[in-house]
Amino acid sequence: MQIKKLFIAISIITIISLTGMSAQCLGPNGIFDNFSINSGEEEPQEISEEETKEETEKVAEEETMVDEADEENETEAVVRESKSLFVSYSSRGFDIYIMNADGSDQTKLADGDKPCFSPDGSKILFVSCRNGISEISIMNLDGSGQTKLADGDSPCFSPDGSKILFESYRNGVSEIYIMNLDGSGQTNLADGYSPCFSPDGSKILFQSYHNGISEIYIMNADGSGQMSLADSEEYYAWPSFSQDGSKILFESVHNGIKDIYIMNADGSGQMNLTNSLEYDAWPSFSPDGYKILFSSNSTGSYDIYIMNLDGSGLTNLTSSQRDYARASFFTDGSKIIFGCDYNGVSDIYIMNLDGSGLTNLTNNSQGQDMYYSIYP
Question: What's the whole-model pTM score?
């Protein structure tokens, strides 16, 4: 480090003392801005020992600041270690657990269902049932500070973490509401269910029943501009945005056959990706938006498949007599996490992108474990 500091100090002195070079030549990005050479009429200025000492001390101070910043980044990296939330169901009811990405350190946080992380990973939304009524609550990452926010179901955070979307049946039908993090400002946006924000938070994707058919809608974050994206005689489900918000994945059922479709965010360009005679379900985008995961029972049991954005490159990743469902990518795209049902027991598994390294994380012989959320 001392050699590095001395080298930087010498480099600065050398640059400043070059004949005729403008004092602005070392730009903010470390390149030479405003580079100019004078005619040679002026003599190069001498750098005094005092100025050299001041410059060296300045460099040392900047190096210290960089080192401190690096330490803070290392600490942040530890805090942001991947965590998974899952729900375990037994005769006692639904319990919410948190664990490390490798399945270690499994800890019960609360009684409840449908947990999800806040964007910064510091809070968890979840649903619990009290006296037959679904309630939305929030808690800290360690399960402390559990606070009821509203009567409702299926909550999710806005991308910036400032708002919460949820469903409510308070008026006898399924409606979509939005509220602040403390439960205040509850506002009815639309009739519908399964809402989710676009990645930039400006739009909301949701489903709504019309004439007995589930249709996919989109609206602005304040509830205005509601527009049907898919409203034929088919049944639509499980819509989700790509990471850049330009595409939407969804399921469509026609004549008893369920396929995976993709379309543009305005509803145009709808394309059947699977064209299967079987039951294809639970599609999800990869973080980079170039791959799609889904489950299919084309082999007699549900396997997890991966394919390209246009449906090409279809590959079965599991190929066994177990049922695998609800597969999702890790946020960094390095692994796949999903649920597996075998002989009446459900567990949480992970595997590599090519299907290798299949690992049971929960090994629960007493109940049913279901995957719901991962952070970051």
Answer: 0.75
